[in-house]
Amino acid sequence: MIRKLLYFLLILPFSSFSQEFEFGKLTESDFNFDRTKIDSNANAIYLNEFGTTRFTFDSETGRMMLVHNYHARIKIYKKEGFEAANVIVPLYKSGSANDQAEYISKIRAVTFNLENDNPVESEMSEKTVFKEEKSKYLTLTKFTLPNLKEGSIIEYEYTIESPYLFNFKTWNFQADFPKLQSTYVAYIPANYRYNVSLRGFYKLTETKSEVNNGCLRVAGKDMDCSKLTYTMKNLPAFMEEDYMTAASNYKSAIYFELSEVFYLNGSNQKYTKSWSDIDYELKSNKDFGGQMKRKEVFKNILSSVISDSDSDLSKAKKIYEYIKKQAKWNNYYGKYSEIGVKDLIEKRSGNAADINLALIAALGAANFDVEAVILSTRENGTVNKLYPIISDFNYVVAKVNIDNESYLLDATDPFMPFGLLPLRCINDQGRVINLKKPSYWMDLKASKKSLTSYSLIGTISEDGKVKATLTNMAMGYDAANTRKEIKKYTSIDEYVEKLDERLSNIKIKNFKISNIDSVENALIEEYEVEINTGSSNGGNQAFNPFFINPLRRNPFKLKERNYPVDLGAAREERILIRIALPSGFSIKEHPKDYSLALPNQGGRYILQTGINENEFTLNQLFTLNKAIYTSEEYYYLKEFYNQIIQKQKTDVVIVKANK
Residue 349: beta bridge partners? Predict the structure, then answer.
């Protein structure tokens, strides 16, 4: 639907506190807003954003519900800002028989464009709204606003009804585009108490608390509410960059967690509990502690898996490999078992908790000292350590203690060696749950560094072609990632064929790959290659010797980064190149030796070159000695990469001896 709006509204003064803005009532200043006031490079800017969440009582079901209203107005400056018009609204559901779920309604979306100095309105059709079943726990409602142009203003609103009272409704002040103003109003009944926390780098511009009389009617009684208003103004866009955990850890946002409810009959229920309460609940839960105790499932199985002559470590490794091969992960996370240990062994598929609680039970059946560790995965965010919130945790792994050493195990990933967790689990700290002792925190760190070494031995001909043997050896996450990549293909031949297609100026002639399935050993790739090095002019040849895994792009581009660089694990890469020159040729120019270090022994880059008779050698060492670098260290890390990139642009020049 397109119709002309005949006039602009006058600019109305804001009250001292932010108010809801009326849908479609644009001002001339909205169309003419100068983005340099907040971000001269912004592709789009939120002119205003307003949301409310309140309780409502469903008299038919006798249940409390949350009603969340959202309203945004966004000015688009460049085509890259069209992304702001692609709206995705997540709706959560229980995925169980009780069929609790969130629902969206009252979606309205309009694009405004200026034509002959008059605003023209294009309203989105309801037919363009569609849903994507992301998982049994999540549905995505998606829509895109119509008739987008540079200079458009888009505006949309919707309502969500939710049965999930515990976390109320999180409000994200920061988004992918800057915001002039973002306001959230929470109406919380007097008999509900929430812990409220602000995350992120930026502080509230305005905050206000007042009483809202008669905001809710329950069982014929009117109840008062606390009306809490939170506002931030002139917020920069949140810029995501490589090597970060969940953006929710760092975006400026307001979070709510239910603490206590006082019921009308005089009773109350506490939701903020002590760890001793959580320990008891987990240990007595049939889908957690109950599964950890299912040792009997494995009593008749273990005799075919381990032997009395095995060392304790060997036994644990064999049980770990048995569970990895016996059960396939269905790609669902979880801290609670869905089908149980017994059914997992029979059906050979389950969620993360099914598999890892089975691993714990199997290790327990072999008389190991084994515990569970609940954690929050990297994309799920960090957990609140001020008070225990069980919903913060979305995953469980095993911890086995052998000869004064502890090993963290996740049997969902067939490519992980014993003692190395998948990178998704390396996220701050986890809580160790012991069936006989109180729980405690432990750091979640990678037990092995990511290690790769390359060795290229060959000769260069007069026409500039290098024929060589290239050997790659990888361990840790580097090896796991390569193994996963290989297994994506139907055969090793297909993997190498696709690799050959991706490598510019390098042709693979023959290959051998060892230890693909032996994850406890280094993955070794050997290739016979032919490399076209570049130019040849009158016998002179110039080529860049940094053709093995070169740094061409700096992953760190921000002027400043207000959150840490989290690699997950320390890294080491070694490269050795040894090339024999054609007879009668010599090296005229080559990269000079170079050494660069990060402060506080954070990492090093060493380049060494040598010429021995008719042979050119190049050695590189690149190390990042820390898994996490603070925002204060960001500048040094960024400059570290910049200097390496510049150094790797240096060529080797070969000339005939008589030139």
Answer: 328
HEC profile for 119-131?
EEEEECCHHHCEE
Q: Is the pLDDT of residue 348 over 90?
A: yes
What is the pLDDT confidence band of residue 442, given thresholds at 50, 70 and 90? very high
Buried residues in 170-208 as b, exposed as e (16+ CB within 10 A): ebbbbbebbbbbbbbbbbbbebbbbbeeebbebeebeee
Please report the pLDDT score of residue 430 as a whole number.
Answer: 97
Q: Do residues 647 and 594 lie in contact, with contact meaning Cβ atoms separated by under 8 Å? A: yes
Write out the two tokens for 154.
Answer: 């888009």
Calculate the average pLDDT of the chain: 92
Specify the length of the chain in residues: 659
- Mean pLDDT value of segment 459-464: 87
Q: Distance from CA of residue 471 to its chain's centroid? A: 32
Residue with tokens 């007069």: 462
**Helix residue ranges per DSSP H, 115-249:** none
**Could you read off the pLDDT of 5-31 as tens digits, one per residue?**
333 333 333 344 457 899 999 999 999
Structure token pair of residue 647: 């150094």
In this prediction, residues 582-590 reach a mean pLDDT of 89
Whether the pLDDT of residue 537 is over 70: the answer is no
Residue 214 in tokens:
């008669």
Contact in structure between 594 and 606 (CB atoms under 8 Å): yes
Report helix, strand and coil shares of the chain as percent, to nearest 5.
Answer: 20, 40, 40
Closest CA to 238 of 246, 228, 230: 246
Percent share of the chain, pLDDT over 90: 82
Give phi and psi for 338, each to the nearest 5. Answer: -100, -35
> CA–CA separation, 363 vs 312, rounded Å?
11
The string of pLDDT tens digits covering residues 258-279 is: 999 998 888 999 888 899 999 9
Cα–Cα distances in angstroms (integers) from residue 237 to residues 21, 176, 231, in the given order: 22, 5, 16
3-state secondary structure string across 595-616: EEECHHHCEEEEEEEEEECCEE
Please report which helix (H) or strand (E) contains residue 634, including its range: helix 634-647
Largest pairwise CA distance in the chain: 104
In whole angstroms, how far apart are CA 487 and each of 15, 74, 512? 61, 44, 15
In the sheet that holds 440-443, the strands lie side by side as: 405-409, 395-402, 369-375, 429-433, 440-443
Q: Return d(Cα 6, Cα 2) in angstroms, integer.
A: 13
Tokens of 605: 């880059």
Torsion of CA 357, 359, 362, 367, to 10 degrees: -90
Cα–Cα dist 28/7, whole Å: 9
Task: Name the pairing type of β-strands 268-270 and 253-262.
Answer: antiparallel
Joined tokens for residue 396: 């469980």
Q: What DSSP assignment string belongs to 298-332? A: GTTTGGGT--TTS-HHHHHHHHHHHHHHH-EE-S-
- Whether the predicted pLDDT of 356 surpasses 90: yes
Burial of 273 (0-12, 13-18, 19+ CB in 10 A): middle
Mapping DSSP to helix (H, G, I), strand (E, B) and coil, where does residue 370 land? strand
Cα gap 57→485, rounded to integer Å: 52
Would you state the structure tokens that stand for residue 79, as one six-digit string? 């085509």
The tokens describing 438, both together, are: 């109180």
Comparing C-alpha atoms, which of 332, 4, 324 is closest to residue 136? 332
The pLDDT tens digits of the residues spanning 394-441 come to: 999 999 999 999 999 999 999 999 999 999 999 999 999 999 999 999
- The confidence band for 628, taking pLDDT boundaries of 50, 70 and 90, is very high
